[in-house]
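Q: Is it fine to ask for two folds in a single conversation?
A: Yes, each is treated on its own. Send the first.
Q: Here.
A: Result:
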Amino acid sequence: MVLGKQSIPFAFRAAFACTMAVLTLISSSRSLAGVLAESDIGISSAKDHDRVEIRLGESAVVRVVDEVAEYKRFFIDLYSTEPGFPDRVIPLRNGILRGLQTIAYPDSKVLRIIFHTTGSVPFRVADAETAVPFPATSVSDTGFARLRPTSRHLVVDVSRGGYPLPDLKPVGLRPLRPGGGAKRLVILDPGHGGADPGAKSIVTFGGRKLEEKDVVLSVAREVYRLLNKSPVVTAVMTRDDDREMSLEDRVAFAEKTDGDLFVSIHANSTKYHGRRDARGIEFYYLGETSDPALRQLEMAENLVDRSSLNKSESEHWDLIWKNMVKDNLDMQRPYGLQVANLVNEVFTQDVYFKSYNRGVKSARFRVLMNPVMPSVLVEIGYLDHPREVRNLAQPAFQQRIAKLIANGILEYFSQLDSELEFYQYEMN
């Protein structure tokens, strides 16, 4: 849905107009200065300090925008510059930066590099040759357009110790690559919990109905066990008991933990799909959907947090959602799709899930909206399908699902990092 002008506060419209004016002023007067290659970005770290160096073939106009206080991030716009690689999110660990994010705006000839921080930490962007820092402005500041500072070699320092900088022992630049570290870190998220049972079975087992929160916790625990047997993977869980967690808590956990992959595990219900005979596995990555049934599922999965908002807070949330979700969608789409496709391929090798496979789809699930790692949501089956629910109630079938999920994750990592060996588990 496109927002009408009257629904956007004047301050926001003014800020947006100022930003577009700057883009037009800078980009319209210059041709492309050059292409930024992946090897032109280097990262080094020391205690309480991260450094990122960006080398450009030609001088480019540089703008630094400070959004640390509001969104725990700042970004650099490089005008008349395009990337030599697709937009991406690069999670970082063992430092102050949580990740880097690149977004190209071809129409404006602008490359944006976003630095996601662990909190309100000081940062400085300077020209490497002159050591002169660039002023950090707000997104609505028009003064930048008059200055038009340029550089061909930027040094970005983020330090908990503040400035002036302490002595920084060089650790050497390393090529930019996803993840980093000796092991891959997976965050497993069993859906629902506590007073929120999720979907329920239509038949009883031992005198009670099967609840989604229990089934997905059992599957997640087995995936956790299998992944942690690998010498090159570590798994953690958002919850390991019957506790209730809000969607915001789950996203905050993911961002704080700084994983390489977020996998949310759920069980399905036919009432969201318009077919009472629906059954099988489904995979979701973050993206738009035009399917009315999936819109209902989105609302159901995203409803928990919204129910606690008053009217004013709800309107504020809507505005944030509609104006900030696009970057998340654009960044997550290719990575989430890649993970979902690979895990789906593993499931199609199983006899049951080859027959009952509902494929890969996109939806705007709040739990998938973290800006620092690929995220997928797995719907392991339908609790209100009379035959499938009997499978889902069996521990052996739950373990079978868990092994397939684990193998799909390992397959994704094996393609991501050829330097490490990821062994998959044999299916019985």
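Q: Second one now.
A: Result:
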Amino acid sequence: MGTTDTQTEQVALPQQPDTVPWPVGRWPQGTLESLDEKATRKYLEQAFVLREGEGVTYGLVLIQRGKLVYERYAHGANESYLQYSWSMAKSFVHALVGLLVLDGKITVSQAIPVPEWQSPDDPRRLITWHDMLRMRDGLDFVEDYVDDGVSDVISMLFAEGRADVGAYAASRAAKYVPGDHFNYSSGTTNIICRELARIVGDGPSGMLRFMEQRLFGPLGMRSPTPKFDAAGTFIGSSYLLATPQDFAKFGLLYLRGGCWDGQQILPPDWIDYAREPTYTDPEQGYGAHWWLYPERPGWFYASGYDGQRILLVPEKDLVVVRCGRTDAEHAPAIWANIDRLVDTLA
């Protein structure tokens, strides 16, 4: 793929068991395998019985060894209830780029051809797809969810930038040398989405058709509902509604190395590319539009506002999907409980 990062050894991804059918239709059903059933029940219950201020959990789905082994909904939600992805959508954008890499239409080491950046003296013209996917484009973009007048993401999604999120983000000035500085940015993802639309063609209809034919359809995902801005760009930073079961299918695609029912949907090394660390601190890490657990080698996840998450645990062949409404202050406690739940499973 033409990347420049030093490759590190990856935790092996599990294969689909021969006796388990792929969930192209409904999920095959199974029984949750636990090392400590009492503790497992405790943490499952705590995922829904939250303390004051911790918000609500709408749905929790566990896929173990390719089977649906646990599913619960609350607060009016059910298995057909569409949930907001928020920033989990960024990981879907990683898949969309991968499809075009597989087609030979994108080389991630090459500069992303953003029209506004093409002046010979514009430092942004050197920004590559690789820089964008790893949130190291160097753009001056403030990802702040407090409406304090300095948040670029709020301006982009809800104010002056909302009609053309890609153009708004592309107008941000260069602040750092591309590749040198990690800065998580919803604007970065929306620039990618605008350029994907140019490659796919035929406006939002073309992009939706591409997503359905190349990603959602082969996986049997019938609920995904991407949102587009007035300029026709998929708002891939934030807006992809789907059921928790369909979010879990997307997670299983990545847990299976981009392969689905004998078909290589994504490039063979694309999931390893997603898991290659870009940034780490004591609490979290980032790969390429996927988050990492520094203290849990091999774990990776798609994460969204309000505590949304698709967690993949390769050594336990496990997908965990949690959808709810929990603010940033309380989300770590919710996920500490989920981590303890995972530890109780076989």
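Q: Anything structural to flag on that second result?
A: Two points. The chain has one domain: 37-343. Residues 203-219 form the longest helix (17 residues).
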